[in-house]
Amino acid sequence: MENPTYSTFETEHRVRPDDIDLFQHVHSSRYIDYVLAARYEQMEKFYGMAMEKFLERGFGWVVSSVQINYKRPLNLGDYFLVRTGIDSINERICRVAFTITNKATGKLCCDGWFDYVMIDIKTGRGAKIPEDVIAHYSV
């Protein structure tokens, strides 16, 4: 069976003063926050299935692993674009690929992926991703 092609979505943000580290550019940990914030917004805006819908069903998404490849820094006041899209999804893991690009220069700041697993909120343990969710997110 052929792997499906998934949509990519884009969210714009701006670097805030509290994102800046000792070296006067965005701290490496903030890039994780940027992707998580973009995904939260994109789940509702583009997929039509916000995080709250998962919580109502007793499910949550947690990050199990992250790969970030840093290319160049973002600085205070920079506007940037976070592009994300599902790379693959099955009953256990949803891999989301991302890029963060400086809006003014068009240059890539970093790229990588996040592996998300679904958990049962009551038990805190891993849960199978329901077929309807896999189908819904396969846009």
UniProtKB/TrEMBL annotation:
<dbReference type="Pfam" id="PF13279">
    <property type="entry name" value="4HBT_2"/>
</dbReference>
<comment type="similarity">
    <text>Belongs to the 4-hydroxybenzoyl-CoA thioesterase family.</text>
</comment>
<dbReference type="GO" id="GO:0016787">
    <property type="term" value="F:hydrolase activity"/>
</dbReference>
<dbReference type="InterPro" id="IPR029069">
    <property type="entry name" value="HotDog_dom_sf"/>
</dbReference>
<dbReference type="InterPro" id="IPR050563">
    <property type="entry name" value="4-hydroxybenzoyl-CoA_TE"/>
</dbReference>
<protein>
    <submittedName>
        <fullName>YbgC/YbaW family acyl-CoA thioester hydrolase</fullName>
    </submittedName>
</protein>
<keyword id="KW-0378">Hydrolase</keyword>
